[in-house]
């Protein structure tokens, strides 16, 4: 890996294009290096993972709305597929529909470093273009490997949330780069596409703050859609604002820290295999990633409480000692009253560690639908317990959160539970059970089981089998429409009616 220093440059400064971060990203994307075997295998896992959560969210309103919008943009031939239905559609709209479906349940892969990310968001736009252009599985693998590589390394080097910019600002460039790799575009074309994609996908974090709406699911889908349009425009010979990160009026100077800040972004050197996907991790639970280990911790503590002959009704207070990110994003440090509101949206509840810890402690399990139902959130005993939970930042958890050592990096918490009689139970968990270093790391069988579980009653058995056979033969696949999944009639009937729009 090569560490690149990235800082604001004055317009009069000598700053050749080859030194622009967007150009260096384009060089990585255009590198014809072979994809490592373990990267290929993980790409298959993540396509399965995305399909799992996409079918599970089929009948949810934001997903249905995005799908109806895509259906208004059919094409006669060589189109992209939309999860759940037959037909061929314009690539950018298929990417929007599928990206929303993948993101809706907050249930696919994650990478956390200086910034947050869900690198699996790269797959819908890259796959949509591959289907639209009639490409094969080998080309798709190369594109996805690049998408993950660029997003993960931007996440390692540049914090967006610190300046209230949404994390999808790293996704637009990564998806554009991945599409560029897949289409064998030259460095100059990818450079323009990366710049345009960043310029059009930089937005504030309000989509994940306060009254969190359905846009939370659509924001990365929109970034993927913009990436496709950016590549299309660049292929036609059009340019983008430059230098997009380093310009005197660019992203670093006015949207991030200031012209004084220098960032360090690692990127593979020429000929180095793209392995960043192996640094990422998926979710066992449908919840914000920083809640994964605390949910598992709550399940474990439930057994301890029962062994001691106590119950959750005996609890006086619970304090979760955790990282800066967890405390301020999904904890009481966010100062969002909605995170304690039993009438809050699902999108808000899955960003409330207080709610999730309370439900997991009571139920000893977590379900992607049942754990968020209004009647579940509104139980009086749950609300009482929920409001006894607070979070505090612990410097050691923050240090481990930012550690570059994968054996030390952690996203967990220590729970201190005080009972009415003055007794205390303490327990902690650094990584979720499904994490590569956890108690039960996810392997291919776990991804398949997750797909089978979430597809039950939604996708017929024969269709499940067909998809799993196709995706596991990805490198030899010549018809990428086989990666689509059609839901059954019962699932289609569950989708809500959506009012008409412009299209």
Automatic annotation (TrEMBL):
Pfam families: MmgE_PrpD_C, MmgE_PrpD_N. It comes from the Bacteria. InterPro entries: 2-Methylcitrate_Dehydratase, MmgE/PrpD_sf, MmgE/PrpD_sf_1, MmgE/PrpD_sf_2, MmgE_PrpD, MmgE_PrpD_C, MmgE_PrpD_N. Residues 20-260 form the MmgE/PrpD N-terminal domain. Gene3D superfamilies: 2-methylcitrate dehydratase PrpD (3.30.1330.120). Residues 285-475 form the MmgE/PrpD C-terminal domain. It catalyses: (2S,3S)-2-methylcitrate = 2-methyl-cis-aconitate + H2O. The keyword Lyase applies. Keywords: Lyase. PANTHER family: 2-METHYLCITRATE DEHYDRATASE, 2-METHYLCITRATE DEHYDRATASE-RELATED. Belongs to the PrpD family. This is 2-methylcitrate dehydratase. It comes from Corynebacterium glaucum. The lineage of its organism: Bacteria, Bacillati, Actinomycetota, Actinomycetes, Mycobacteriales. The gene is prpD.
């Amino acid at each position: 890996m090569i560490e690149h220093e990235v800082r604001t440059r004055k317009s009069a400064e000598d700053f050749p294009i080859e030194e622009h971060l967007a150009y260096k990203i384009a060089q990585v994307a255009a590198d014809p290096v072979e994809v490592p075997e373990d990267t290929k295998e993980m790409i298959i896992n993540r396509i399965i993972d995305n399909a799992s959560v996409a079918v599970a969210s089929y009948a949810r309103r934001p997903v249905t709305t995005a799908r109806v919008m895509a259906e208004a943009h059919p094409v006669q031939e060589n189109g992209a597929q939309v999860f759940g239905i037959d037909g061929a559609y314009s690539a950018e709209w298929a990417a929007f529909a599928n990206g929303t479906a993948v993101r809706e349940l907050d249930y696919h892969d994650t990478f956390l470093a200086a910034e947050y990310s869900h690198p699996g968001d790269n797959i819908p736009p890259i796959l949509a273009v591959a289907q639209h252009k009639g490409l094969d599985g080998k080309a798709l693998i190369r594109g996805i490997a690049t998408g993950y590589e660029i997003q993960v390394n931007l996440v390692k080097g540049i914090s967006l949330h610190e300046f209230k910019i949404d994390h999808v600002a790293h996704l637009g460039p990564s998806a554009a780069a991945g599409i560029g790799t897949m289409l064998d575009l030259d460095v100059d074309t990818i450079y323009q596409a990366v710049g345009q994609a960043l310029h059009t996908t930089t937005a504030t974090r309000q989509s994940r703050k306060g009254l969190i709406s359905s846009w939370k699911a659509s924001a990365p889908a929109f970034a993927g859609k913009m990436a496709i349009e950016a590549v299309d425009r660049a292929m036609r010979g059009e340019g983008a604002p430059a230098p997009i990160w380093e310009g005197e009026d660019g992203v670093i100077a006015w949207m991030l820290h200031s012209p004084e800040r220098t960032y360090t972004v690692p990127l593979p050197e020429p000929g180095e295999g793209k392995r960043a996907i192996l640094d990422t991790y998926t979710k066992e639970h449908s919840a914000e990633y920083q809640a994964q280990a605390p949910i598992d911790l709550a399940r474990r503590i439930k057994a301890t409480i029962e062994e001691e002959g106590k119950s959750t009704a005996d609890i006086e207070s619970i304090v979760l000692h955790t990282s800066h990110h967890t405390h301020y994003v999904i904890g009481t440090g966010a100062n969002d009253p909605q995170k304690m509101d039993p009438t809050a949206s699902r999108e808000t509840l899955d960003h409330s560690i207080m709610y999730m810890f309370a439900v997991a402690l009571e139920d000893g399990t977590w379900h992607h639908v049942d754990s968020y139902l209004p009647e579940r959130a509104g139980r009086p005993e749950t609300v009482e317990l929920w409001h006894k939970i607070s979070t505090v930042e612990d410097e050691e958890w923050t240090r481990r959160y930012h550690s570059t050592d994968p054996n030390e990096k952690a996203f967990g918490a220590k729970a201190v539970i005080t009972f009415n009689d003055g007794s205390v139970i303490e327990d902690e968990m650094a990584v979720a059970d499904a994490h590569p270093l956890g108690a039960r790391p996810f392997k291919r069988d776990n991804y398949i089981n997750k797909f089978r579980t979430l597809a039950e009653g939604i996708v017929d058995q024969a269709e499940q089998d067909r998809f799993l056979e196709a995706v596991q033969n990805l490198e030899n696949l010549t018809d990428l429409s086989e990666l689509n999944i059609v839901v059954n009639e019962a699932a289609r009937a569950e989708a809500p009616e959506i009012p008409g729009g412009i299209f």
